């Protein structure tokens, strides 16, 4: 009986651990929805890149604690996708270092996130560029 339970537990852990460590692999969820999200925009000043910390040759992605939100057992951040829309990204987190949290899975080193989670934001809203950033992008094209 003990061996049977132990084998089942080992098999369950062998299946669960890789799923937890790999994150969403681009299958992002959506933040809680409200009605007309197209009218809302996130100011560009609220968006920041994730920080990459090099600890003796090992790199860690860290985000502010304020960027994290919880939905049931899941932990997420609002990230900006390639077309400038905000979307929820489910992440696996590690230790807290000061006011930041190590992200083990779910974000890339070049990810842009909303630095402080706002429950009023939802998936699909656009990041509103400030005029200087828009002019810089146009001049580089």
Automatic annotation (TrEMBL):
Source species taxonomy: Bacteria, Pseudomonadati, Chlorobiota, Chlorobiia, Chlorobiales
Protein name: Multidrug resistance protein MdtA-like C-terminal permuted SH3 domain-containing protein
Pfam families named in the record: RND-MFP_C (PF25967)
Domain of life: Bacteria
The UniProt record lists the keyword Signal: yes
Annotated ranges, domain Multidrug resistance protein MdtA-like C-terminal permuted SH3: 61-114
InterPro entries: MdtA-like_C (IPR058627)
Keywords on record: Signal
Coiled-coil residue spans: none
Signal peptide: 1-21
Gene3D superfamilies: 2.40.420.20
PROSITE patterns: PROKAR_LIPOPROTEIN
């Amino acid at each position: 009986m003990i061996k049977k339970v132990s084998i089942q537990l080992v098999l369950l852990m062998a299946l669960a651990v890789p799923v937890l460590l790999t994150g969403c692999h681009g299958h992002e969820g959506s933040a809680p929805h409200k009605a007309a999200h197209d009218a809302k925009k996130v100011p560009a000043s609220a968006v920041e890149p994730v920080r990459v910390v090099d600890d003796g040759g090992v790199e860690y992605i860290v985000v502010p604690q304020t960027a994290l939100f919880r939905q049931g057992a899941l932990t997420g951040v609002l990230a900006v996708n390639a077309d400038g829309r905000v979307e929820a990204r489910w992440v696996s987190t590690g230790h807290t270092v000061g006011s930041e949290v190590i992200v083990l899975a779910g974000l890339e080193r070049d990810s842009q996130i909303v630095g402080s989670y706002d429950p009023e934001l939802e998936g699909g809203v656009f990041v509103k560029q400030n005029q200087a950033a828009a002019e810089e992008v146009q001049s580089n094209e």
